[in-house]
Amino acid sequence: MSESAPLLISAGNLPAPNWHATHEEAQARLTRMAEALGAGDWKEVDKGAKWIYEVLRPHNEAEERELFPLLEELGAEALHLRLHEDHRQMWDLTLQLLTEISEGQVRAPRSLTLLGQRLVDLIRDHIEAEEFLMLPLLRGKSLYCSDDETQDGYLILEKKLVAPETWSFIVQAPQVARGRKPGQFFMVAPFPESERIPLTLAGGDARKGYIHFIMQEVGSTTQAMGKLSAGDRLYAVAGPMGAPTELVEEGTIVLMAGGYGSAAILPAAEELHAKGRRVITILGGRSKERVLLADELGAASAELIVTTDDGSLGRKGLVTDALADVIARESVAEVVAVGPLPMMRAVSDLTKPHGIFTLVSLNALMVDGTGMCGGCRVSVGGETKFACFDGPDFDGHKVDFAMLRNRQDWYKAEEQCDPSECKIGRVAATGPVDYSQYLNAPVTDLADWKTLDLGTIKPSQKMKIPRQEMACQPPELRVCNFDEVSLGLSPEQAKLEAARCIMCKHPACIDGCPVSINIPAFLQQIVNDDPQAAARVIKESSSLGSVCGRVCPQEKQCEIKCVVGIKGDPVSIGRLERFAADSMLGSTELPPVEASTGKKVAVIGAGPAGLTVAGELVKKGHQVTVYDAFHKPGGVMLYGIPEFRLPNKIVDQEVDNLRRLGVKFIMNTLVGRSMTLEDLRKENDALFMGTGAGLPKMMGIPGEEYKGVYTANEFLTRINLMRADLFPQYGTPVTVGKNVIIVGAGNTAMDAARAARRMGAEHVTIVYRRTIKESTARKEELEHAHEEGVEFKFLTTPVQLHGNDKGWMTHAECAVMELGEPGPDGRRSPKMTDERIMIPCETLVVALGFDVNPLLAMTDKGLKTLKGGVVVVDNETGETSIPGVFAGGDVITGGATVILAMGQGRRAAAAIHNRLMGEPQAAV
User: Fold this and answer.
1) What's the pLDDT at 375?
2) pTM for the predicted model, two decimal places
3) Measured between alpha carbons, how far is residue 746 from residues 299, 372, 661, 783 in Å?
4) Is 502 helix (H, G, I), strand (E, B) or coil?
5) % of the chain with per-residue pLDDT over 70
6) What secondary structure, in 3-state letters, does 109-154 show?
7) Helix, strand, or coil here: 325?
8) What SS3 class is residue 807?
C-alpha cells in the first residue's frame, strides 16, 4: 500500500476522508473474504459483501463526488471512465452476492465462488489504480502537501553527470511539477540557512510528482549540490516562479540554447511539438560534451541544428551563424534564446534588423524569487524590472546586457572569501557572554516594597514608583554580535512596573492596542507574581505576544494613552507584554480549541497577519492551512527584522504553537504561480490574503545598477534568514564595505544600519531628506542606532551614484534639502537646494518602503486594488471585492507595523468565523 499522506480536500462541510486508510482496511477485508470463498464459509463472505456495500460504496461515492471532477479537469478521461465503470461493476457483483446468500447458504456454490473471486480481484485492481495512478495524479495537480510531508526535504530520485561540472537532477517536488509551464524556474535551498538559488525547469511529471533540472557547478552552493547523491534530500524547493515564456500563435519558432540553457527551452519545444507547431532548435557548445539534451530536443523539433566551437559535433561555428542561415531561407516569427550572456546578446543583435520578436531568459541574481528582495533587477527599455517577477524572459532588443553582466559578477570574489577574514563572530570566539551581569536592579521610593501588597496600594503611592529601565547590552559589546540587544525586565522590575498601573475604570490603553489586549488584567497578574496567567490573558487577543512586546511601537499606541503618562512616564506596557509572554515560551500548554466545524480556510502568507488569522480560526474549530513562498513561516518577522531585535527562535516557537493547535503549513508555494485564488476558493470555504508589501521601491537615480547597491529587503534577508552573518560557514554572501549609506529613516533603515555595523562596516551613515522629527522609526531604534555609532545626515538625499570601471559603487552624490510648509499629514515637504555633497560609499541600502506585489491581482481580475497594488477591503470586515476572500496587513495598507497587521488579521478572522457560521458580521 502507498504510504502517502491523506489528501487535503473535502466535500461541502465534511472533513476530508482518509482515502488511504479505507483502502488499507478494504485490502484486509478482501483477504479474509478470499479465504472464506476458498473454504466455502458463506457467512464470512456475506459479512464481507455487506461491508463493501455499507462502507466501501459510500467511500466510492465520495470519490465520484470529490475526486473524479478533478480527473476530468486534468483531462485524465480514460482513467476517469475506467474507475467509474469499476464502481458500477462492484455494486452489481456485490448485490448479486448479497441476493444469493441466505443465512449462510447458497444454491450454486461453484458459480458464486467464481463471482465472489471476480469481485475481490476487481476491487483489488481498482484500489491499486487509485493508489498508484489517481491519488498521486491529483496530489500533483490540485492537492497540496503540508510541511510535515516535506519536513525531511525533497528527495533526489536521480542524479547523473551530463557534462563537465554539469548535473541532471530528478527530484520529488509535486507542487512544482503540477504548476510548471515553459520558461519558468524554481528556487532551491539545498541546506538549512543556505542561499536560495534559481534553477530552470527542464521538465517533470505532474502524475508522478517529480521535476527535472540541469545544474552547473559555478559557485559554492552549486558546488555543494554537486556532492549530493540520489537518495539525499534538498532542504527547500519553491516554485514554479516567474512568468511563462510568451510563444507566438503562428509561424516558425526558433529555440536556441547554449550549455545548460537547453533545459530552459525543452518544455517549450515539447509544448509546441504537441500542438503541431514548426520548431527549429539550434544548440551550441564549446565541444561535443557541452551540448545538452540534444536527443530530447531533436525529438520535439522539426529540425535540430547543433554547432560546436571545435566542430566535434554538428557544424563548426557559432549558433548565430546557424540562425543567420535559417533567417535567410525562411520566415521566422519568434526566436527564444537561453544561454550565456554573450550568446543571447549576439542573437538579439542579429534578429533586431529583421524585426523578429526575440526573447532572452535573464538568469539574474536572486534571493527569494517572488519580487520581494529586488536583487534581480535588470534594465529593459530603460526601465527597472525584476527578473523573478516580470521575467525571466524579456525582449532581447531592449535588455541592457552590460548592466546584467556587471551585476552577475558581484559575488565571485566573496565566494572565495578566506574564513579567517570573516569579521562576524568576534564575540562568539571568546565564549558565551553572561548577560545577567548587565540586568538592572529595581528602583523605587517605596520603603519595604517587597513586603507590600502592591495590588492594593493607593494611586498616590503608585505614582512614586519610577518607570523601570530595561537593561541592554553595552553598545561596544552588542555592535560585535547579533544577540538580542534588549535584555528585558527582571521579575522584580516587572512587578514594580506593573504596579504603576492605576487600573482605570475605562482603560484607554486597550483602545490604543490594535488587537485590544486586556492590558490592566495582564498587568494585575504580573503584580500577583503570576506571569504565566498574564500570558494567558495576552493570548486571548494576541498569538504573538513575545513578538509584539519587542517590535511594536507601544509608545505610539497603548502607552501614549496611558493615564499615568499624563503626569509622568507611562507604564511600560510593551516591555511587560514581553516579560509575560516570554514566561510561556516553550510551554506545552495550549489554549482550548472548539469542536471541529468542518469548515476550511486557506491563509496566504505566513507573516503576522496570516499567523494571527490562523491562530484565531483554528481555535474556533476551523481547518486552517497557511501557504507561503518561503521555506520558513514568519514573513517579515524572520526575513526583515534582525535577530538583535527579534530572535528567530521566538518566532519559531510561536509558529510551533500554531502547529500544535492544528494549523497546517504549506511552504515553498507562491500563490499566483503554483495555484490561483480561484483554485484555493474551490477547495476552501474562505480565504485570507496576508501577503504583505514586498515590492521594493527604488530611488530612480543614475547609478543604481552599480554593485554594492541593495534594497533593504535583500540586504536584511541575506543576513536574517540566510545567515550571511555567518558567511562563509553558510553559503549566502553579502557585501558590506568600509563605508555604508542607508537611505531612509524608518525602522527598516535602522535595522539595516545596525546590521551593517555588526557586519564590520566602519562608517554607517543614515541619509534622510527630512529631519529626525519626520522620521517614522521608533525612538528606541533611533537611540540604539546612535549609540552603536551610526551617523545621521538629515535634509540629505542621493541624486546620483558614482562607481569605478569595475562596476563597484564608490561615492554617493547627495543634494542638501530644506523643508517647506507642512502638508495635510502635518509633515513638511522637502525641497532640493543647489548644494551637493559627496559621501564615500561602497555599500548603499535603499530603505524607502515597499509597494504591494501585484501578482494576485494580476491572476484574479476580480480583486480590486488601488495605486501601488494596495488591495481594497471592507473597513468593518476586511473582505475584498471577491466574496469570501479577506485581506489584512501590509497588503491593504502598504508597509506598516507587525501589531497593525495583527489587528487587521484579528478583525478579518472574526468576520470569517461569523460568515462560516452564518452569524451576523461584526468587527472586533
Assistant:
1) 83
2) 0.79
3) 56, 18, 35, 13
4) coil
5) 92
6) HHHHHHHHHHHHHHHHHHHHHHHHHHHHHHHHHCCCCCHHHCCCCE
7) helix
8) coil
pLDDT at 180: 87
Which segments within 274-331 are labelled E, that is strand? 279-285, 303-308, 315-316
Report the pLDDT value the prediction gives residue 782, as an integer from 0 to 100: 95
Amino acid at the residue 234: L
CB 575 within 8 A of CB 488: yes
- How many Cβ atoms from other residues are within 10 Å of residue 1's Cβ? 11
Position 869 scores a pLDDT of 77
- Our CA angle for 871, 873, 875, nearest 5°, is 140
CA distance 583 to 592: 19
**What angle, rounded to 10 degrees, do the helices at 519-527 and 491-499 form?**
130
25-72, pLDDT tens digit by residue? 999 999 999 999 999 999 999 999 999 998 898 888 878 866 776 676
Q: What is the pLDDT of residue 825?
A: 63
Question: 383 to each of 91, 367, 698, how far by Cα in Å?
Answer: 65, 21, 11
Angle at 782 between CA 781 and CA 787, to 5 degrees: 95
Residue 13 has pLDDT above 50, yes or no: no
| Other beta carbons less than 10 A from residue 13's beta carbon | 11
Helix, strand or coil for residue 417?
A: coil
Give yes or no for a contact between 234 and 663, defined as CB atoms under 8 angstroms apart.
no
- Joined together, the cell numbers standing for residue 311 give 566542430
Angstrom distances, CA of residue 20 to CA of 2, 26, 132, 150: 8, 10, 11, 19
Please say whether the beta carbons of 648 and 639 come within 8 A.
no
- Asked whether the beta carbons of 334 and 250 are under 8 A apart, the reply is no
Long-range contacts of 573-576 (CB under 8 A, 24+ apart): 573/509, 573/519, 573/523, 574/548, 574/549, 574/550, 575/470, 575/488, 575/489, 575/494, 575/497, 575/549, 576/489, 576/494, 576/497, 576/498, 576/522, 576/523, 576/526, 576/534, 576/549
Concatenating the DSSP letter of every residue in 426-469 gives TTGGG----GGGGPPPP--S-TTTTTS-TTTS-HHHHTTSPPPP
Strands 334-338 and 357-361: parallel
